Amino acid sequence: MVLADLGRKITSALRSLSNATIINEEVLNAMLKEVCAALLEADVNIKLVKQLRENVKSAIDLEEMASGLNKRRMIQHAVFKELVKLVDPGVKAWTPTKGKNNVIMFVGLQGIGKTTTCSKLKQNATKARIPFYGSYTEMDPVVIASEGVEKFKGENFEIIIVDTSGRHKQEDSLFEEMLQVSNAVQPDNIVYVMDASIGQACESQAKAFKDKVDVASVIVTKLDGHAKGGGALSAVAATRSPIIFIGTGEHIDDFEPFKTQPFISKLLGMGDIEGLIDRVNELKLDDNEELIDKLKHGQFTLRDMYEQFQNIMKMGPFGQIM
């Protein structure tokens, strides 16, 4: 069951409240049973699911609720609030400081999409003509990382991304190399990249990396086709590590900022209005003074219409926006 299936099952459970003629304990318990079953199927930790159920039950007292209140709306709001808490670590994510060098170091196991994520983050460096540093002769990754960071600091780059090597498992050599690179480049932010397909096992993995290096942010990859995505997100949140991005595919554009409330809204089919506004703002439509002037004079050609359609296409599929 991928995340879309999880959203449909939870939405179906919440919709059952609208079909009920009377909202009582029996209806509430039946709805919660469906929601909890969907979360467990998505590999969310049973303790977290149990806590969600208890929190909703304690927040909704049907006997004490005033007759004028919309019970259905109150229950739906309580479930939404608990789902947000499920993926919210309660810790503010690191943000780069404008006007200074920001060194970001990526760590993680091999094959989880670390280097692909770096490419997505820098939005295809070759096409954007953003320089990168590597060496065909130097074998020591610590030296390569240190030299590269110093080079780009000297050229006053504000964002410097350091991609470290991965391993097939949590080896001591991996952690030792990470520590050496970290000590050499002194990163402002260490990002741990993890694979959503391992589900709630993400928690122990994230904790292992946090114990060795100062992981400040997490990126979860491969959320597009795995049944355990919900378990992965909730497990990471349990480690109090803020998720900053999620990868939803292999393409450069299959990468989006992670915000808890918009994510749950989108999951439940309520749409991500905040994300839509961000996408529209990225197009910078207000900067097209020539088009604005033409519209003021009642002029709008087929070429203008074509260009606006192209702008809409740049926003990506509506399934990713809403």
From TrEMBL:
Entries under InterPro entries matching the protein: P-loop_NTPase, Signal_recog_part_SRP54_M_sf, Signal_recog_particl_SRP54_hlx, SRP54, SRP54_GTPase_dom, SRP54_N_sf
Keywords (alphabetical) are:
GTP-binding, Nucleotide-binding
Q: Which GO terms describe its molecular function?
A: 7S RNA binding; endoplasmic reticulum signal peptide binding; GTP binding; GTPase activity
UniProt entry tagged with the keyword Nucleotide-binding: yes
The SRP54-type proteins GTP-binding domain is annotated at 242-255
Q: Which Pfam families match?
A: SRP54, SRP54_N
Q: List the GO cellular component terms.
A: cytosol; signal recognition particle, endoplasmic reticulum targeting
Q: Which SMART domains match?
A: SRP54 (SM00962), SRP54_N (SM00963)
What is the name listed in the Swiss-Prot or TrEMBL entry for this protein? Signal recognition particle 54 kDa protein
Query: Which species is listed as the source?
Result: Lates japonicus (Japanese lates)
